[in-house]
Amino acid sequence: MPPTALLALDLDGTLLGPQGEVPPDLSDELRAWAGAGAHLALLTARGRLPPEVQGWPLHTVTRCYGAWAEQAGQTLWCWPLPDVTVRAAIAAIPLADRRVGQTLLVTADPAGIVRGPGPAFGTLWPQAREVLKVVRGDEPARLDVLAARWAALPGTALIRERSTRLVLVRAGADKGAALRHLAAHLGVPRARVVAAGDGPADAAMLPHAGLFIRVGAHPALAGAARRAGCPADVPGVLAGVRARLLRCPA
What we know:
The protein is of the alpha/beta class. The longest helix has 12 residues, at 140-151. It is 25% helix and 26% strand.
């Protein structure tokens, strides 16, 4: 039997506050969803999970948007960038810029994160394998130029998290594709998919959720059906949705 619903949640800015604080009622509310038979998925851009999520009743977790997913302790899928694409992405960053901006390669191995700049970066990054995302932090004008170069790389997708941060992932490794793939895998219809997020990367989930909760006021999420002002409001909003969708007392 498929789950009663699929609850797909972003982490930073949605469930965690600016300083990483967890709303007091969040864990209890997540357990209430799980107790009602819902499948809980955490869709995060992070390369590794923070300790705050320990003890949450999570069934599926993605890292690097939707490039990697784990379910019940087993890898559900892993969609890394080809090595040749990673080399081309690094080569597209001028040498002078590499010394002033920040570059990050996140691999399928949570311990295999390669950071630059630094004297060892030039020798470490070619050794990275199964790179899930390449992250570049720099001034907006330089990132605009780099975005045009990265957009020409075949089989990739760009995520502009903010004006000073650009991310490259494999095509189809965004949160929207991950949510669509997971719902199909579980056999949950779109009408029973609930998602929540706070930023432009989360907007990819909008077409695949029957109900979307916008946390904050980012314009990319203007099409959301519900709104929570901040992470502290999320448990209460989730309780209301649970009462209606799963017919469980809030």
